[in-house]
Design goal:
- By secondary structure, the chain is an all-alpha fold.
- The chain has one domain.
- The protein has 4 helices and no strands.
- α1 packs antiparallel against α2 and α2 runs antiparallel to α4.
- The longest helix is centred in the last third of the chain and has 57 residues.
- It is elongated.
- The relative contact order is 0.08.
- It holds the Pfam family DUF2304.
- InterPro entries: DUF2304.
- It comes from Thermoanaerobacterium thermosaccharolyticum (strain ATCC 7956 / DSM 571 / NCIMB 9385 / NCA 3814 / NCTC 13789 / WDCM 00135 / 2032).
- This is DUF2304 domain-containing protein.
- Keywords: Membrane, Transmembrane, Transmembrane helix.
Length: 124
Amino acid sequence: MSFNVYTFSLGFSILFLIIIVREIVRGNLLEKYSLFWIFFSIVMIVISANLRFLNLLSRLLHIYYAPSVLFLLGLLFIISYCFHLTMIISKQSESIVKLTQEVAILKNMIESEKNKDLERGKDK
């Protein structure tokens, strides 16, 4: 077997899957965020290993150089994951604003209670 773009893609996808699983086991990557990457790796492994399917897909998409389909799929997966992360960041930004407001309200309440206690202590 010669070294070509298919071999490189297959090797890289397998290595990437191993790295994802290792990071999950170490606790550096949450399972809910890793599902996309696991799915992406498995799809790339299947497509890289099945040259007939890749050639069929390239003919259906009118792409004349079959390995370009691998890069196209990779790019589409990455773009969709960036969109997914943008949605997560938007939700987290809203949560951070709400939490900051709640902390400020609680801090204000604590300060006002301290001031009331100090005034009661002076009155005695």
